[in-house]
């Protein structure tokens, strides 16, 4: 008879793995990907493909170089690549997209220890690097290929910031994403479907998105801005549902998530309404990423150690 | 406040089948430690004839338990065995004569007050049959009865596969309530709560019917959320009381007892037959016919499975207890113990260990810990050898229920790191103690030296 396995309990495990979680996220990004292809044409698919591929290749090569265990199979690099591409304008030169992917994976993720160890969101940090390095191409917005009502190709937030009423698309176009912007952020409908899928699959919890979007909505109301417009335009939905819910760069306690979301919301509003930039979601998430360890520490749950006689 | 838990597959395949009495094996091996506490002392020698229910191991010290022969026959040898827990303990091997003659001294114990009740429980050899194996007479032999206001009867049976407690409630429900009456009579406790998970309909209806005829007994139907049957969780969910860290239910005025233990004690009071056989669940993916069996204590696992219908697949992992907290056995020669409530045989597919990948910091472990610990932080503190942090994280509170390791998508060995963390914390406490003693000693020698120099000074002064 063969030898019996001896091991510490438990002997049952969940079927969920890092890979299945990442597959869930990829599935959740599919509606937005489809929407971007419809709105901006085939080039959006090219950019997403290039980013995903260069992320996976950089992860694979870097781990090979460092003789680390290969984690390309867990598909987290694909998710990073897709999210980065969603944050780029469709017109971006391919080499810049590749550069951004390399920054995301090697500088932001691998140099800090790889999956689960990075303190900043790779996609967002890479987007900010590209923004500062290539501000021209990063803000070169084109109008959607579909027929649309808005007059200019300015993004809705830029239009709102400048007060150009005619350039502001109507709510329905905003909701369907038929306006200019980063390729994956425009279609609110697709993002909400993806977010709902992640919530149902329990990949993310509701705390961060609700706190984030709720804070932006409340602050907009408070400052006399158009609430629906603020919520549906820019990268808010993409950021709140897919980036502010990243595991390793955000707090994992319930109250920590709520504080994180509120912080992101406040910073976003601050940058949007009073900053020089029309959009502030990326910076707000990055800034809150830095605070994550402190928020986690602050909201740490007390163990059920008792000591009190009821 | 609600305690976290996990939804796991129930696999209660055997709940509807009445237990089968197994034929007596040709040989039993009875280890002298089937309980928490001191190993019992062997009181028979090689060549002695013994009968069913005869005392062969005597309790030693305050926390220990009497052990009785489960067969009639001859003591073949007394040697040592290594338990699944890794301890070396004396072990009595008895060759059965197949007649199963009862020991002459067996008669219902004379019980008329609290002391004689506790003595009877001690003589019955009862230990916590839910798996813990804590000697029952120690648990029931409370110094100050006025401290206790309730007994929580643990009938949650939250582990997958296991249905032996379910069968006790269905087949021996009457004894459960006789046990309750005995505790009422001899210990003066008036309030009883039976906690059952809601996936045991038949057992619940039996208990509810009987509870309707008895004063002071409530049946609490609890959600099937593992680990509902762990002492801390059960006491919180039934009484809303929290057992203090390092303490016992006694500290908050509660006695928690497993339902099968209680039924056994009642049966002993009536018949006088000590704990020599055990109803246990035989199940798992490698088993041909999953069922509950009544097996003599000391029967080897290989005899057990042969008598219970055999295996359909090669077993890859065999364990005492359920898949969440079960202890794997090194070989099929291991005996059935007093506190064995199930033996699970897993084939290579079910037992295949999942691949461990890097932690993705998802926080699922902390989100599902019933005691609100943070296994990820504990693993980090253990890795960095930080005793102080382990103390802060209350690693010694962990009951090793396995929720964290179950839900971990990276399949980190979190129960293992928690266990190691506990060990490290104990070392840290020892180090602190040694440090303190050293400082104390230094202070004393210093004081002595000063005293001496002062004396010298005085002397020279003169």
Note the total helix count of chain B.
14
> In terms of structural class, how would the helical and strand content of chain B be classed?
alpha/beta
Query: Rg of chain B from C-alpha positions?
Result: 25 Å
The number of helical runs of chain A is 14
Name the average pLDDT of chain B. Answer: 91
Order of helices and strands of chain A: HHHHHHHHHHHHHH
Helix content of chain A: 55-70%
Strand portion of chain B: 15-25%
Enter the CATH topology name of the domain at 109-271 in chain B.
Answer: Rossmann fold
Write down the CATH class of the domain at 109-271 in chain B. Alpha Beta
Q: Biggest protein-protein interface? A: A-B, 41 and 69 residues
CATH architecture of the domain at 109-271 in chain B: 3-Layer(aba) Sandwich
User: Low-confidence parts of chain B lasting 5 or more residues at pLDDT below 50?
Assistant: none
Q: Globular, elongated, flat, extended or rod-shaped: what is the shape of chain A?
A: globular
Helix content of chain B: 25-40%
CATH topology of chain A: Ammonium transporter fold
Kindly summarize this structure in a few lines.
The complex is a heterodimer of chains A (310) and B (462). Chain A has 310 residues and is mainly alpha-helical. Chain A has a single domain, classed as Ammonium transporter fold, CATH 1.10.3430.
Could you outline the blueprint of secondary structure elements for this entry?
The complex is a heterodimer of chains A (about 300) and B (about 450).
Chain A: H1 18-40, H2 43-65, H3 76-86, H4 94-109, H5 122-133, H6 135-138, H7 156-162, H8 171-176, H9 188-200, H10 207-222, H11 227-232, H12 236-243, H13 254-274, H14 281-298
Chain B: E1 20-21, E2 27-31, E3 41-42, E4 49-50, E5 55-58, E6 67-68, E7 73-82, E8 88-96, H1 114-124, H2 136-140, E9 150-155, H3 164-171, H4 173-187, E10 192-197, H5 201-212, E11 217-222, H6 231-239, E12 254-258, H7 259-271, E13 277-283, E14 291-296, H8 301-307, E15 315-320, E16 327-328, E17 342-347, H9 348-351, H10 364-368, H11 375-383, H12 387-392, H13 403-407, H14 414-461
Parallel strand pairs in B: 1-14, 9-10, 9-12, 10-11, 13-17
Antiparallel strand pairs in B: 2-8, 3-5, 4-7, 5-6, 7-8, 13-14, 15-16, 15-17
């Amino acid at each position: 008879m063969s030898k019996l396995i001896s091991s510490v309990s438990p002997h049952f495990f969940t079927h969920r793995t890092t890979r299945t979680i990442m597959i869930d996220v990829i599935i959740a990004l599919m509606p937005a990907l489809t929407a971007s292809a419809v709105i901006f044409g085939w080039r959006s698919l090219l950019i997403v493909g290039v980013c995903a591929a260069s992320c996976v290749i950089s992860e694979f090569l870097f781990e090979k170089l460092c003789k680390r265990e290969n984690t390309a199979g867990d598909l987290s690099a694909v998710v990073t690549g897709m999210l980065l591409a969603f944050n780029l304008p469709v017109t971006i030169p391919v080499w810049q997209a590749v550069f951004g992917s390399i920054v995301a994976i090697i500088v932001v993720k691998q140099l800090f220890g790889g999956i689960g160890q990075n303190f900043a969101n790779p996609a967002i940090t890479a987007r900010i690097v590209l923004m500062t390095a290539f501000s021209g191409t990063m803000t070169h917005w084109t109008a959607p290929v579909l027929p649309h009502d808005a007059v200019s190709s300015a993004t809705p937030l830029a239009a709102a910031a400048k007060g150009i009423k005619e350039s502001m698309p109507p709510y329905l176009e905003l909701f369907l994403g038929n306006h200019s912007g980063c390729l994956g952020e425009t279609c609110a409908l697709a993002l909400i479907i993806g977010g709902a899928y992640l919530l149902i699959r329990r990949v993310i919890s509701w705390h961060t998105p609700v706190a984030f979007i709720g804070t932006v909505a409340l602050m907009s109301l408070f400052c006399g801005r158009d609430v629906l417009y603020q919520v549906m335009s820019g990268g808010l939905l993409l950021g709140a549902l897919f980036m502010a819910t990243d595991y390793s760069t955000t707090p994992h306690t319930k109250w920590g998530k709520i504080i994180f979301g509120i912080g992101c919301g406040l910073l976003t509003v601050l940058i949007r309404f009073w900053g020089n930039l029309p959009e502030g979601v990326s910076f707000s998430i990055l800034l809150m990423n830095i605070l994550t360890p402190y928020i986690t520490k602050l909201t740490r749950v007390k163990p059920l150690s008792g000591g009190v006689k009821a | 406040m609600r305690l976290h838990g996990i939804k796991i597959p129930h696999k209660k395949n055997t709940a509807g089948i009445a237990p089968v009495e197994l034929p007596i094996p040709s040989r039993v091996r009875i280890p002298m430690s089937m309980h928490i506490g001191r190993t019992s002392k062997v009181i028979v020698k090689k060549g002695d004839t013994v009968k069913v229910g005869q005392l062969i191991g005597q309790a030693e010290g305050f926390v220990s338990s009497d052990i009785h022969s489960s067969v009639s026959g001859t003591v073949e040898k007394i040697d040592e065995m290594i338990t699944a827990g890794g301890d070396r303990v004396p072990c009595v091997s008895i060759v059965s004569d197949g007649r199963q003659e009862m020991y002459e001294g067996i008669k219902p114990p004379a019980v008329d007050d609290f002391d004689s009740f506790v003595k009877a429980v001690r003589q019955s050899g009862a230990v916590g049959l839910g798996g813990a194996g804590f000697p029952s007479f120690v648990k029931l032999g409370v110094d100050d009865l006025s401290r206790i206001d309730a007994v929580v009867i643990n009938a949650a049976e939250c582990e997958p596969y296991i249905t032996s407690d379910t069968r006790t409630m269905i087949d021996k429900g009457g004894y459960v309530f006789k046990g309750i009456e005995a505790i009422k009579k001899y210990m003066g406790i008036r309030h009883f709560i039976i906690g059952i998970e809601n996936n045991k309909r038949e057992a619940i209806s039996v208990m509810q019917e009987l509870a309707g005829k008895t004063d002071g007994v409530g049946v609490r139907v609890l959600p099937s959320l593992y680990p509902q049957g762990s002492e801390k969780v059960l006491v919180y969910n039934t009484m809303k009381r929290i057992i203090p860290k390092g303490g016992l239910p006694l500290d908050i005025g509660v006695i928690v007892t497993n339902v099968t233990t209680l039924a056994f004690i009642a049966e002993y009071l009536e018949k006088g037959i000590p704990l020599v056989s055990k109803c246990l669940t035989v199940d798992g993916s490698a088993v041909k016919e999953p069922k509950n069996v009544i097996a003599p204590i000391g029967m080897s696992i290989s005899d057990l499975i042969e008598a219970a219908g055999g295996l359909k697949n090669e077993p890859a992992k065999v364990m005492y207890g359920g898949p969440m907290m079960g202890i794997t056995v090194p070989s099929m020669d291991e005996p059935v113990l007093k506190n064995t409530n199930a033996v699970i045989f897993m084939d290579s597919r079910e037992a295949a260990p999942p691949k461990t990948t890097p932690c993705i910091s998802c926080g699922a472990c902390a989100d599902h810990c019933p005691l609100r610990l943070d296994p990820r932080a504990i693993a980090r503190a253990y890795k960095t050898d930080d005793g102080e942090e382990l103390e802060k994280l209350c690693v010694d509170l962990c009951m090793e229920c396995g929720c964290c390791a179950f839900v971990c998508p990276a399949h980190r060995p979190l129960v293992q790191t928690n266990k190691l963390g506990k060990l490290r914390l104990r070392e840290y406490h020892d180090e602190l103690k040694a440090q303190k003693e050293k400082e104390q000693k230094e202070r004393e020698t210093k004081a002595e030296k000063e005293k001496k120099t002062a004396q010298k000074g005085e002397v020279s002064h003169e």
